[in-house]
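Milestone 3.1: sequence recovery, worked example.
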């Protein structure tokens, strides 16, 4: 039996944040950011952003896709500069299974040691007033047209400038407003972190993509035919426990119950496979709960601890935390569903009365598939680090970005190793979206433009990519065709 990630001791935020600061060399503050459908509502634009990682060769490297939503489970935005972090890097030697790598090793494993990070000497560039105005207007339109209680967004540009927008309500009962520092549940965007853990183990040589699941979980049905790669790209055929209606009822019956991965896998994963391993594609949260257990066996520590040690802390993502394990750095935004009534639409909170969003049972059940919360400022930086090449070696990043045909929410798309590929404004993006009851998330990185976008909002309708699509219209306007010159009178025309 593995140590349940949800039973790991709470990490005090102040101590962990100080450890991250010391490990990073400097954080220069310059002031005050699942299912992947491509529906196209006309609205929304906002952005909350952070500056690029400084002083290290870290950049993009891992991602994930959006999860089906279990039934259980004001003011105008302003362009706001955010802190810039210098992230440490050092080469990491291969470790034996069960031997944790030292903290602060975000350089691709096996690469030469990086130069020591240096403090940023000056603030990053600011977004132009024209672009900030476009994004402000887009965010306000999005919130209005999609009827979002609260929304937060960040755009991180190649030169390090960022734009952050935060609008609406984080808690309707108290009137608490969304700010750039308000965390939201990120749901299946969590899968990008779990995928990154596994892929860094691939870089370390402690696991291979074509290793069989039975090597780590000998008793799992079909485990000798299911590979780590199949879990990562959802071709394993393992059923999704969130689609089990019996489990849905259990989650709603006791919203404050804490679930462990062992309990969920033993009781609520149906025995019949969706298809033989490797013979189809079906999104399954079960795959990523299993990957969390594999990561624990390889790393010798609970999943939540590994995520902090390997990714969150070295990158200085100080607003990112594992729900039900960490103390939140700020009170998260509540999750909502909109209910129509005689006096119009009202927002109904999805909550158990705690600061775990949407509520304890669904978050702890999701675990390594969906338990993280964050801000868009952190997530935009994470997207650029993961997909821009700062987390994985080039060879493993190439494997991550090898896609298979997929189908979700009625849309054909492609899925890699914890990452989906979606086009916006005829531009390719890598990333992942997330969905739990009452909350939505998405990260997207445009590799050609080197622009990262992150969005979070607290309504259970629509998907995170709907907001990204609106932002993309402001970021990448379609050029108007140039009119052809008029033909002069009497000129001859070619046949």
């Amino acid at each position: 039996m593995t140590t349940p990630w949800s039973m790991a001791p709470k990490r005090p935020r102040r101590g962990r944040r100080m450890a991250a600061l010391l490990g990073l060399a400097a954080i220069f503050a310059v002031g005050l950011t699942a299912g992947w459908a491509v529906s196209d509502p006309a609205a929304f634009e906002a952005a909350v952003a952070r500056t690029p990682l400084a002083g290290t060769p870290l950049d993009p490297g891992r991602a994930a896709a959006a999860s089906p939503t279990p039934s259980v489970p004001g003011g105008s935005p302003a362009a706001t500069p955010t802190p810039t972090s210098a992230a440490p890097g050092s080469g990491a030697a291969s470790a034996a299974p069960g031997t944790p790598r030292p903290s602060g090793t975000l350089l691709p494993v096996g690469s030469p040691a990086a130069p020591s990070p240096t403090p940023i000497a000056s603030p990053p560039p600011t977004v132009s007033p024209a672009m900030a105005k476009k994004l402000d207007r887009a965010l306000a339109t999005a919130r209005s047209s999609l009827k979002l209680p609260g929304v937060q967004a960040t755009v991180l540009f190649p030169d390090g400038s960022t734009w952050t927008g935060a609008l609406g309500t984080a808690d309707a009962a108290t009137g608490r407003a969304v700010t750039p520092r308000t965390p939201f549940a990120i749901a299946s965007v969590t899968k990008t972190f779990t995928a990154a853990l596994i892929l860094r183990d691939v870089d370390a040589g402690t696991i291979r993509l074509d290793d069989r699941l039975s090597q780590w979980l000998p008793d799992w049905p079909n485990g000798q035919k299911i590979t780590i790669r199949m879990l990562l790209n959802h071709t394993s055929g393992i059923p999704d426990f969130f689609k089990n209606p019996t489990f849905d009822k259990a989650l709603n019956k006791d919203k404050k119950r804490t679930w462990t991965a062992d309990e969920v896998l033993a009781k609520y994963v149906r025995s019949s496979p969706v298809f033989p391993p490797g013979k189809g594609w079906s999104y399954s949260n079960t795959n990523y709960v299993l990957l969390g257990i594999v990561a624990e066996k390889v790393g010798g520590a609970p999943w939540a601890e590994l995520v902090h040690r390997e990714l969150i802390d070295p990158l200085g993502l100080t607003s990112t935390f594992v729900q039900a394990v960490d103390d939140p750095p700020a009170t998260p935004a509540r999750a909502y569903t909109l209910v129509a009534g005689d006096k119009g639409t009202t927002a109904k909170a999805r909550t158990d009365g705690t600061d775990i969003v949407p509520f304890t049972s669904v978050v702890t059940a999701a675990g390594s598939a969906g338990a993280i919360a964050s801000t868009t400022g952190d997530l935009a930086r994470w997207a650029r680090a993961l997909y821009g090449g700062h987390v994985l070696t080039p060879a493993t990043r190439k494997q991550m970005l090898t896609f298979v045909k997929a189908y979700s929410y009625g849309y054909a798309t492609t899925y890699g190793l914890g990452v989906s590929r979606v086009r916006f404004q005829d531009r390719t993006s890598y990333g992942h979206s997330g969905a739990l009851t009452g909350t939505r998330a998405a990260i997207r990185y445009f590799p050609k433009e080197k622009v990262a976008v992150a969005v979070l909002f607290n309504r259970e309708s629509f998907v995170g990519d709907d907001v990204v699509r609106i932002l993309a219209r402001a970021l990448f306007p379609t050029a108007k065709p140039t009119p052809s010159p008029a033909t002069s009178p009497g000129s001859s025309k070619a046949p």
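Residues 32 and 82 are 5 Å apart (CA to CA). The first strand starts at residue 26 and ends at 28.
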